[in-house]
Design brief:
The complex is a heterodimer of chains A (about 130) and B (about 220).
Chain A (H helix, E strand, L loop, with lengths): L21 H9 L5 E5 L10 H18 L7 E5 L5 H18 L3 H20 L2
Parallel strand pairs in A: 1-2
Chain B lengths: L1 E5 L2 H7 L5 E7 L2 H4 L5 H17 L5 E7 L5 H4 L11 E4 L3 H10 L4 E4 L1 E11 L2 E6 L15 H4 L16 E2 L2 E5 L1 H11 L4 H4 L26
Parallel strand pairs in B: 2-3, 2-4, 4-5
Antiparallel strand pairs in B: 1-6, 6-7, 8-9
Classes of the chains: A mainly alpha (about 130), B alpha/beta (about 220).
The structure holds iron/sulfur cluster (SF4) (2 copies).
Amino acid sequence: MRLGYPSSIRIIRVPCTGKVDVLHILRCFERGADGVTVVGCREGDCHYQTGNFRAKKRVQQAQAILEQIGIGGTRVRMCNLSSSDAPLFVRFAQEMHAAIMDAGPNPVRTARMLQRASAGTTAALQQP
Amino acid sequence: MIVAERKPIEEILGQVKQVRSVLVLGCNECVTVCEAGGKKEVGVLASALRMLFLQQGREVNVGERTLERQCDTEYLEEIRDMIDAFDAVVSLACGVGIQFTAERYPSKAVYPGVNTCFMGAALERGVWSERCQGCGSCILAATGAVCPITRCAKRLLNGPCGGSTAGKCEISKDVECAWQLIIDRLKALGRLEDYERLSPIKDWSTDRAGGPRKIIREDLRS
Ligand code: SF4
Ligand code: SF4
């Protein structure tokens, strides 16, 4: 089908969404990602029975933590589709892209850039 | 196991608002099993704190470490070399581990990252229930291995109170009446005559009523 999806999206492959932990999601934000979508198989279709249900719970846990730390829970989503459903994947990708454009950049990334900029200014001022 | 619950991040943040560096210290035993203070929870809390500090414009070094146990000096010694790099410790061990870490490193501020709740068992994933209050003189032999000290709201020793209704305790319809459980169990074991036997007055001096407790075993002491 060769359908296009927003180039802002990076794919990280995992054996099953059941492998995705809260910690993996948080690490993405710590490293500057603006949003994370966990894309699992349709509910009831998990090859490992409950992997996508576990992922769903972990996405909810990550949302709660991100909400508490001021990043916003809406930056993490779970969506379910069949692996052959490319049009649906494209739709989810576009929706996520639009939601992130609305939410703006990850405040952690902005804060880090500011910190680096001020460190750079201090270093420049200290130069003889 | 000792069952604990994670403290809200906001509360932990309030504890560490002055620090320039903090070590998040987990424990590999009970709190790992009840998913409150193991390596994974250490990673999650440390990551959340780092992101919060960044947003506050603070440069705080957040370290992560998980020990085999925090209630044994030999394991606590493993952080001797790294502890100087930190102003404070947020311990995700049970209250015992938190206090023991503080005793071992008296110059460090040690803060609790969990609420330690009770000694209990996992009924299913994500559900824990209290089973023992460590009364120091176990009476389970007489009660068909159901503990009335823990599971009866009134800690009754000789049968149920008048509030026991349809197997439920009068404090809540979600709480089973311990004495109903004891009677059912004794009946199933064919030991109902044990129920008729009056329980003597319990020696509460071995419980918390006797003050903080300590066990000394001369046969083990070095
Ligand atoms: S009788 Fe005491 S030691 Fe035995 S289970 Fe109950 S609280 Fe624990
Ligand atoms: S109803 Fe049962 S468990 Fe509740 S206080 Fe009375 S005897 Fe104890």
